[in-house]
Design brief:
Oligomer: single chain
Structural class: alpha/beta
Helix content: 40-55%
Number of domains: 2
CATH topology of the largest domain: 7-stranded beta/alpha barrel
CATH superfamily of the largest domain: Glycoside hydrolase 38, N terminal domain
Largest sheet: 10 strands, mixed
Radius of gyration: 24 Å
CATH class of the largest domain: Alpha Beta
CATH architecture of the largest domain: Alpha-Beta Barrel
């Protein structure tokens, strides 16, 4: 097959912080996982399956982070997700009865009943509760490239004050990937796209070929890349960097002109958890009585004011199909123009948070499905490609050092370092230094109890380093939970640190926190040596 004029590379970043509370089912934050499975991960997998069955040759890349993989693999969370679905099926059944006098609402309530019932069947019977293998299947047949991330999404531009902590984030990220996918990842999604040159040597040490950066990470690289974001660059440390395309980002992400804001799409913020009679909805909201999202949403965006009309799934699908056609036409024009100016085929890199597709933009997975079919059948200007495939086809890459950068507001770490959360950083650095100290005080420890405690210190440090806590504090949502997690991990780490140094390890305490923070069972604290 002749080479096309250019390529488009979709990259979805699938991540959630590790949330695991065996001591209680009252933590609403656990529902982040269940909502994401029903609204993003199962819909994506089902659309990949349809493309496979229809023999549509497509390509997509996904980073599935170690915390998310750990939660997918957690038996307790699997059981709780099934319970979550059964509760939602029960609510949907009640809604079918409650709305029997309103034909449009009744059709929607039946739609949700079918949706949650189908999720339960797929999760239990089709996937056998194993979403990791479901994704691995598509990697194995060559249409999905799965890449890794930092162990707990630790933000490198903050952590590199103690470089061993960046090394550990990368090492554990690669280790977890190999455990589940049986090979080394070629790419890594830098947490929050936070690029620092100091990480290159560790990325190389653990076999990483490429990273994804925000657009200005490439545009302000040194020397200036001759092809901008439309071709990768390679750093002096031998790490290849792909930059986010600005135009495609705006078309999908923008709250003003982006596709998800279309008036025919489902309104995220109108949910029966807030709209229904309180006594009726009480068994299906938070245990403390707070109203929360149930996932059953009857309205479409409709307009920019408070008036909302009922959601119409057919109208929404028609809109997604029309917008997929628009996106396709834009890429054809973009690549035709770029290819006339470049000596190599351009690559348009489209990285997004995975949860945009399905959770925030309910119709997003269907939009992707239609777009991939249109790319396959309706044009020959460009093809979908993964970053690894592009590197293999076009190995001659300009040497240039990416600019220190991140994504997020203003693009230079402000989301993770500002006056609302800067108090956390001294704890991150102190704990990081202490972990390195422990590794050097007790190299290759043979005492079983002390070794367990050292490994648990490494877990507590990694969980503390999650960039999610800083993001949540900046964003002003669920702040109390984020602060609680920071305090808990600092407290557990510090208590263990002193117990290890004084040789007075509390076995019960160690077991208790391991049961709660049961992540990375194969970790070796010596990665901090």
């Amino acid at each position: 097959m002749n080479e096309p004029k250019g390529y488009v590379s979709f990259i979805l970043h699938a991540h959630l912080p590790f949330i695991h509370h065996p001591e209680s089912e009252d933590y609403l934050e656990e529902q982040w996982l269940y909502e994401a499975i029903s609204e993003t991960y199962i819909p994506l997998l089902q659309n990949f399956k349809k493309l496979e069955e229809e023999k549509v040759d497509f390509r997509i890349t996904m980073s599935i982070t170690p915390p998310l993989l750990s939660m997918f693999d957690n038996k307790l969370l699997q059981k709780r997700y099934i319970k979550y679905l059964k509760t939602h099926i029960e609510l949907a059944q009640k809604e079918v009865k409650r709305t029997s006098n309103d034909k449009r609402l009744n059709e929607l309530s039946k739609y949700y009943l079918d949706r949650y019932s189908n999720d339960l069947k797929i999760f239990k019977d089709e996937y056998n509760c194993n979403l990791i293998n479901a994704f691995k299947h598509f990697q194995d047949i060559g249409v999905l490239e799965i890449i890794t991330c930092g162990a707990t999404h630790g933000y490198f531009p903050i952590l590199y004050v103690t470089e061993q902590t960046v090394k550990a984030q990368i090492a554990v990220g690669v280790q977890v990937y190999k455990k589940y996918f049986g090979k080394n990842p070629r790419g890594i999604w830098l947490p929050e796209c936070g690029y620092i040159p100091e990480a290159d040597k560790y990325l190389k040490e653990f076999g990483i070929d490429y990273i994804i950066t925000e657009a200005h990470g490439i545009l302000y690289a040194d020397p200036t890349p001759i092809y901008g974001t439309f071709a990768p660059i390679i750093s002096p440390g031998n790490i290849i960097a792909f930059g986010r395309d600005i135009e495609t980002s705006k078309q999908v992400w923008s709250s003003i002109c982006g596709y998800p804001g279309d008036f025919n799409y489902r309104e995220f913020y109108r949910d029966i958890g807030y709209d229904a009679d309180y006594e009726y909805i009480k068994p299906y909201i938070a245990k403390n009585g707070d109203r929360v999202h149930t996932g059953i949403k009857y309205y479409r965006i409709t307009s920019k004011n408070d008036f909302k009309d009922y959601y119409n799934p057919r109208w929404a699908m028609d809109t997604a199909e029309r917008q997929a056609g628009h996106f396709l036409d834009c890429r054809i024009s973009q690549i035709n123009e770029l290819s006339s100016l470049m000596d190599v085929p351009p690559i348009v890199v489209c990285p997004y948070d995975a949860e945009l597709y399905g959770h925030w933009w309910y119709e997003g997975p269907y939009w992707l499905y239609i777009l991939f079919k249109k790319i396959y059948y309706d044009q020959s200007t460009f093809r979908l490609i993964t970053p690894s495939e592009y590197i293999d086809k076009h190995p001659n890459i300009q040497i240039s050092t990416p600019c220190r950068s991140s994504w997020g507001a203003r693009g230079y770490s402000e989301v993770w370092l500002n006056q609302t959360n800067d108090y956390v950083h001294r704890h991150l650095h102190k704990a990081g230094n202490r972990m390195v100290e422990l590794a050097h005080l007790f190299p290759n420890e043979k005492n079983t109890l002390r070794r367990k405690a050292l490994n648990q210190c490494a877990r507590e440090l990694l969980l503390l380093q999650s960039s999610d806590w800083l993001f949540i504090i900046t964003n002003g949502t669920m702040v109390d939970y984020a602060k609680k997690r920071i305090k808990e991990h600092v407290g557990r780490f510090t208590k263990l640190y002193y117990q290890i140094k004084s040789n007075k390890i509390d076995k019960e305490f160690l077991k208790e926190i391991y049961d709660k923070d049961k992540i990375f069972p194969d970790i070796d604290y010596m990665i901090y040596y």
